[in-house]
User: What shape does this take?
Amino acid sequence: MMRQAGRYLPEFMEIRKKYDFFTRCRTPELASEITVQPIRRYGMDAAILFSDILVVPQAMNVAVEMKPNFGPYLPNPIRDRKTLDAVTIPDVNHELGYVMDAIKATKEKLNNEIPLIGFAGSPWTILCYMVQGQGSKNFDKAKEFCFSSPILAHELLTKITQTTIAYLKAKVNAGVDAVQIFDSWGGMLSPVDYQEFSWQYINQIIEALKDEVPVIAFGKGCWFALDVMAKSNASALGVDWTCSARNARYLTGGNITLQGNFDPSRLLSPPKEIKKMVTQMINEFGKDKYIVNLGHGILPNIPLENAQAFIEAVKEYKV
Amino acid sequence: MMRQAGRYLPEFMEIRKKYDFFTRCRTPELASEITVQPIRRYGMDAAILFSDILVVPQAMNVAVEMKPNFGPYLPNPIRDRKTLDAVTIPDVNHELGYVMDAIKATKEKLNNEIPLIGFAGSPWTILCYMVQGQGSKNFDKAKEFCFSSPILAHELLTKITQTTIAYLKAKVNAGVDAVQIFDSWGGMLSPVDYQEFSWQYINQIIEALKDEVPVIAFGKGCWFALDVMAKSNASALGVDWTCSARNARYLTGGNITLQGNFDPSRLLSPPKEIKKMVTQMINEFGKDKYIVNLGHGILPNIPLENAQAFIEAVKEYKV
Assistant: This one.
């Protein structure tokens, strides 16, 4: 489940009470503990490292705060040549060494029983936050920056891409078994703009990592690009719940592994109904070349027995 | 252009300084003046009545405030049987008589030179606000309500549908030449949930209005339902910029009129580039069975000459 170490778990909420967001990310003992909490409770088939896509801008000299009841806040957004020039390409082992330590600590706790997945935001999605300065319904300032200053935008995207490649390679060296690239905001772009401002950079990351570990690419709302994505060297593609299994298989040509796509809000249905819907989802994707997952991050208000029903339905699935 | 009487016009901002949002909606002289402002400046082929989809919940006994720098705020959201029972089906000519007066005043100002389009939110989109109580990135509370209390949800959707049908019929009687149904948040639902919670109600509205005026249905992010929508009695379907002309024609079967789909943020490109992109868009949709439009509402920060370039490119288009 995406964001599976998230706020629906009481044992996570205990840790959350004591340590703020980035302290949890930066303290290997906490990050690794949070990563394995859902595994202990539910026994998923893979662990996803607890972290945040916004540790990358932080390492690139762009301040990021996590404001309670508000979300990420970047007090000095990138809007022009001067702010762009202050963005650095960091030594990731130095600036993000705490992530590598968290990976090593997690691998020890997992004892090689299940794989560990690391992740990064797509360059476009990271740009969205860097330019907008906070979450947004339409990231209008980020799009304005790209459409009115495309040269600066591509320069920023290139810096983020270089950093992300180094970051994910360091994660692989530290022990992750697969990586996922999250393009949370790719679906805000037209198909043409998506190729220009998002996909070409994701594809550079895939090319740089493909020989080291499997790379999963997930673009929320990016159904329109699934045909191009399917021709890349990604090992699997994530799909969200607006793209049915049938459409996803059709658009990707039927050969690539797909991951998804349960609507996280549907985990608010009664457990019995959840199980029925999960079984139907697996039937529709087919059990081969398929990774059961949500179509986006799990919500904080999901009852434990509902998350349980989701996992059980997968484990109980009979071919 | 959707929201064409909007905040990008200085003459609108003059009125906005003096009167608050709902005063502008409720005062026929102001609403009609705002409606014709963009026509005077740019000479579009149709006027779109200045109003708001949230006048409907207001008429249904659900308070709606427009908070500066926040957007709509509904202090008493619908969450249970008790709050649902307080929602009324109003006499629209009484509760929304000011809209009918605004239509009559606008028709006089337009002098029958161009048609006037009226609109309403889809029942699902209205429910989103009624339950969430404000705008949202994922309308999680609205979806929770539907998925955990589907009986109450359908009761609310039925009330909204009945009100909307009466409201749009009254608008037709008052003089609008076409109506558009906006499903701004339909794209948050899976294809199956979209049919259950949104489309069936939109379709009821289309069926009730189809013999009176052309009905345009627009579902943002609802590419996955275009095939079903194309089989309805809607006269035209709106598409957003994530669905290319080619995909839209393919998904709708090629026979129905389409409206869209310029990315509003792309109006931030230089005017010359805008003209090129608009021409290309018309080429791709084809000049027949096509209404040039944005893919969503115009943004407040669009320079006047950029909106002008959009309109000019359409008027200058040569077959």
